[in-house]
Design goal:
This protein is of the alpha/beta class. Helices cover 37% and strands 11% of the residues. The longest helix has 30 residues.
């Protein structure tokens, strides 16, 4: 027979899987082991002991043995004796019945009667118990062996145990204890005036920007005091980071289906059906296990007898074992029915971490579904502590804290100082690109003036930014930054310029509209979504001190909110990326504008609304579709206009009215199709910079010498013939090295004496030919 230790393979699973076995599975496994012992014990007895013991029957009545008492003293009707003769002993009384069979005949009779007359239930009872028990064990453990489920279970258990033992789990839960025991916020270390300012600013933000109030609970996170919770080393931090990635990928994979749940449900249903079947037929057939068995077989020609009385020695023991087995099956079935009720009484395809969110500081732990939820329900039946520790790795707040810790280990203060540079405005600048967050050491650079954050997802600006006392400019390129109230209070008082570049309009943080002291705002991204464009930029009305607004987008018309802000704007720049900007009448309200840029707006004519802006000093209409500029006559009403940029267009000629712009100092007409320069252009005596490069000019009029203040003249990439073709592109031609004008350029009246033609040594203009 097979030893019990060998059969344990069917009952035992991998030790790691024990956490996935609820109490009912453990209970049914032990019941199955007892059933196995019953089967092995019964089978062993049946093999080692005599199965049947049979004797011929001498008194036969109607093909059955007659067991009635026969008195030898009193005569009675003589029964028939077909097989033997009774020889009474008159002197000694009755003696035993003697048969003329040998041992082999007895063995033959035992085997024939056992095979043909013993009931099948009594004959195969141990094997039936073994078969049913193996089926129970297979149903209980099939989900651990089936490839599509075992792979998920193995992966889940592996990740779960690593999360349970991770030092980051202990640290995260200890932080929760610290925060619960210390109601004082971490940023309470800041000075009293900053605390007072923070609370005031928070109230003001909620009052002036309702959108910020709705998202306040989402964007505000506390700062952890690391001194109370210990520090992870770099290796442990990297291991925890890898665990976060594994949990994310595993969750995405497992939540796609519910095969584990369905398989567990099916094997439970099979066990319930099996239990009902066993009870039904076992109770019905158990009375067929009898000790006495009458055996009538047609073997009289071999033994001389036809009817036998047989004894089944194991019948009594088998009846006891059968009764015990039935009781075990009943217990097993009740447990399976309870399991089925547990699975049906509520949805196990959803798992909520509500209690853990209430107990811990990680309120963002998401609920899970499908197989992931079902496995967590099973884990709770083993020990709820596993789910609690595992939930740490589902929290984005926890991941951000770990990411911050790893950043601080990687980006030391010395490393950051090496990345400091001076920008074009001679300001100290730090550019952080594609990091997982902002290292805390950044806020130790008190001398920092410009901070650029690019491609940094889900960053939160902490209160410690108040240490950057020199910070005046902030860049957020594809960085959806959140902010805490104390940090917002600091930026409101100190930030002057903000640059935001985005792909999705949701990347524009709503808190920027509470920066009341902001003077420059640069927005670059797609604002074409009609449904939410104005919702996002309506907050511009709150920026009362805004002086410079740059929009690089694809607007079809100028939003009303830009017009409202334009009352106090001094510079407006719109780069429309080639999209036609149709409605520009609202520009008339921007009476304080001094600089206007309409770049790549597909303009075919100069907008009339510009002529009402009497404070304009600079106009830039670069890269449009201008073919004629007849409206330039109206520029004479703009008495403060000093710079006009009409470059990168399709202008074929310059109207003679250009001469009315007497205050013009810089004129850019490069990259057009101009073939001739009108003489009236040289009436603009204040011109200091004139760019006529990349046109179709064939000569320069002699009146160019009238421009006595001209310092830079560019005529490169034209068709001007003469020595101009050989002039140096970056400076004055060789003929001009002695201070006299080149011979191909007509001299101004008076012979080019200093002060009459070009200033400073007779010819001081920088010529690019």
């Amino acid at each position: 027979m097979i030893p019990v230790t060998e059969l344990r393979y069917f009952a035992d699973t991998q030790p790691a899987y024990r956490i996935l076995k609820p109490w009912w599975d453990v209970f049914t496994d032990y019941i199955s082991i007892v059933m196995l012992m019953i089967a092995v014990f019964g089978g062993t007895l049946q093999v080692t002991q005599d199965k049947m013991i049979c004797l011929p029957c001498k008194w036969v009545t109607k093909d059955s043995c007659n067991d009635s008492f026969r008195s030898w003293a009193a005569p009675s009707p003589e029964p028939t004796y077909p097989n033997s003769t009774i020889l009474p002993a008159p002197d000694a009384g009755p003696t035993g019945i003697k048969y003329d069979l040998d041992r082999h005949q007895y063995n033959y009779v035992d085997a024939v009667c056992y095979e043909n007359r013993l009931h099948w239930f009594a004959k195969y009872f141990p094997y039936l118990v073994l078969l049913h028990t193996l089926i129970f064990l297979a149903c209980s453990n099939f989900w651990f062996k089936f490839p599509r489920t075992s792979s998920k279970l193995e992966h889940f258990v592996s990740i779960l145990l690593k999360c349970f033992d991770s030092p980051w789990t202990t640290r995260a839960l200890s932080e929760t204890v610290v925060e619960e025991s210390d109601p004082k916020p971490a940023f309470s270390k800041m000075n009293g005036s900053m605390d007072k300012k923070s609370s005031t600013v928070s109230e003001d933000v909620e009052a002036t920007v309702p959108m910020l109030q709705r998202t306040k609970s989402r964007i505000e996170q506390g700062i952890v005091d690391r001194s109370e919770t210990g520090v992870l080393d770099k290796k442990e931090g990297e291991q925890a980071k890898a665990l976060f990635e594994k949990v994310k990928k595993f969750r995405t994979h497992v939540e796609e289906g519910d095969i584990v749940y369905r398989l567990y449900m099916r094997q439970t249903i099979i066990k319930v059906i099996k239990f009902a079947l066993i009870i039904c037929y076992t109770v019905y057939y158990v009375h067929n296990i009898k000790f006495d068995v009458d055996c009538t077989v047609d073997i009289e020609s071999l033994t001389g007898y036809r009817t036998y009385r047989c004894a089944h020695p194991l019948a009594t023991l088998f009846k006891i074992l059968a009764s015990f087995y039935i009781s075990l099956v009943i217990f097993y079935g009740l447990v399976c029915m309870y399991t089925l009720w547990w699975m049906l009484r509520r949805s196990l395809k959803k798992y909520s971490f509500e209690s853990i969110r209430e107990e811990s500081s990680y309120s963002d732990i998401p609920d899970v579904k499908n197989d992931f939820a079902f496995m967590l329900h099973l884990i709770d039946q083993y020990d709820p502590l596993y789910s609690k520790r595992f939930a740490v790795f589902l929290s984005e707040v926890s991941e951000n804290k770990l990411r911050q810790l790893n950043l601080n280990n990687e980006w030391t203060l010395d490393k950051l100082r090496q990345r400091l540079t001076k920008n074009a405005q001679d300001k100290l600048e730090l550019h952080l690109f594609m990091l997982s967050g902002i290292p805390d050491t950044v806020f130790d650079l008190a001398e920092l003036e410009v901070l650029k954050l690019e491609l940094i997802p889900d960053v939160t600006i902490p209160p410690s930014i108040a240490q950057l006392t020199g910070l005046r400019e902030l860049w957020l390129y594809h960085t959806a930054a959140k902010i805490e109230a104390p940090a917002l209070a600091f930026l409101r008082e100190n930030l002057r310029a903000l640059h935001i570049k985005f792909t999705d309009i949701k990347e524009i943080p709503l808190w920027i509209y509470s920066l009341k002291t902001l003077e420059e705002l640069h927005l670059t991204g797609n604002l074409s979504a009609e449904n939410n464009r104005y919702i996002v930029i309506d907050g511009l009305r709150e920026l009362k001190r805004l002086k410079v607004l740059r929009l690089k987008s694809n607007l079809s018309k100028l939003p009303q909110v830009v017009t409202d802000v334009g009352v106090h704007l001094q510079k407006l720049s719109i780069n429309n990326e080639g999209t036609k900007l149709i409605v520009l009448n609202s520009l008339k309200k921007m009476v304080n504008l001094t600089e206007l840029e309409l770049i790549r707006c597909d303009l075919e004519r100069i907008p009339h609304s510009i002529f009402s802006l009497h404070n304009l000093q600079e106009i830039d209409l670069k890269d449009n579709n201008l073919k004629t500029i007849e409206e330039i006559i109206s520029f004479q009403h703009l008495h403060r206009l000093t710079c006009l940029k009409l470059w990168y267009n399709h202008i074929a000629y310059i109207p003679i009215q250009i001469g009315n712009l007497t205050n013009l100092e810089r004129l850019y007409l490069n990259r057009n199709k101009i073939e001739k320069i009108p003489t009236q252009l040289f009436y603009c005596r204040k011109l200091r910079h004139l760019d006529l490069s990349h046109n179709n000019l064939t000569f320069l009029p002699a009146d160019v010498g009238l421009l006595q203040n001209l310092q830079n003249l560019a005529v490169t990439a034209n068709r001007v013939s003469g020595p101009a073709a050989g002039a140096h592109a970056g400076g004055r031609p060789p003929e001009a090295r002695d201070g006299s004008p080149p011979p191909w350029l007509p001299r101004p009246p008076g012979g080019g004496v200093r002060g009459e033609g070009f200033p400073h040594q007779g010819w001081g203009a920088h010529v690019c030919c």
